[in-house]
Amino acid sequence: MKTSITAKTSLNPEVESKLNKQVRMEGISAFYYLSMASWCENRGFVNAAEFLYDHFEEEKMHMLKLMRYINEAGGHAIAPEITNLRYEYGSFREVFDQILEHEIAVSRAINNLADFCFKEKDFASFQFLQWYVAEQREEESVARRLVELFDIIGEEGQGIWLIDQEIGKMLQQIKAERAAEGEEAA
Ligand code: OFO
Questions:
Q1: Pocket flag, ligand 1, residue 125 (CB < 6 Å)
Q2: Ligand 1 atom with minimal separation from the 139 CA
Q3: pLDDT at site 1
Q4: Would you say residue 4 has pLDDT above 70?
Q5: Would you kindly state where each structural domain of the chain is located, as residue ranges?
Q6: Burial class of residue 129 in the structure, from the number of CB atoms within 10 Å of its CB (0-12 exposed, 13-18 middle, 19+ buried)
Q7: Is the CB of 48 under 6 A from ligand 1?
Q8: Considering only CA atoms, which residue is closest to atom 3 of ligand 1?
Q9: Which of 11, 41, 91, 99 has its CA 20 to 30 A from that of 127?
Q10: Cβ(52)–Cβ(40) under 8 Å?
């Protein structure tokens, strides 16, 4: 329960509102990936579907991490409304072109948010956001590698099947890295 004392917070309302905008962006990211996963599964791209379902969980975690931070800082995290999702894609490649574009937009949003927090002297939020800065660097690089698969392998003949296989390998590698990081942290 919030009392008049616990309701007091140093969290600047503008920072809180911008953090909530980022909560929404992470929620949108999660459902973009979910919608893409379903499209891929429906078309028989089973490894890509697994990759994207896995990423849906990652983005959900990013959203939750932000929500918990806002509430712990004394603000009010707002569960986002997700509307206007896209359900159809023109091609397998288009899914991954969209992902790269989206991740670049998320990186810019995170950088602007971190910049705003710094200028507002909200160093706690600035520091908290460094995790997202590093995460976006990684996600953008994975998204670029995915698009490169289409350029390198090509979509002719068995190309699409091979690309799907490579995406499966990338997912295994990501999971192994995550497990190793978990072991280091333990
Ligand atoms: Fe939330 O990491 Fe990408 O979008």
A1: no
A2: 3
A3: 60
A4: no
A5: 13-81+89-180
A6: buried
A7: no
A8: 103
A9: 99
A10: yes
d(CA 186, CA 183): 5
Atom of ligand 1 nearest to the CA of 102: 4
Judge if pTM exceeds 0.85.
yes
**Could you tell me if the CB of 66 is within 6 A of ligand 1?**
no
Picking from 133, 109, 143, the residue whose alpha carbon sits closest to that of residue 25 is 109
Whether the CB of 26 sits within 6 Å of ligand 1: yes
Q: Which two tokens stand for residue 1?
A: 């329960």
Does ligand 1 lie within 6 Å of residue 129's CB atom? no
For the stretch 9-67, pLDDT in tens is: 779 999 999 999 999 999 999 999 999 999 999 999 999 999 999 999 999 999 999 99
Q: The domain at 13-81+89-180 falls in which architecture?
A: Up-down Bundle (1.20)
Q: HSE, CB side, 13 Å, CA atoms: give it for residue 137.
A: 6
Q: Is the CB of 166 under 6 A from ligand 1?
A: no
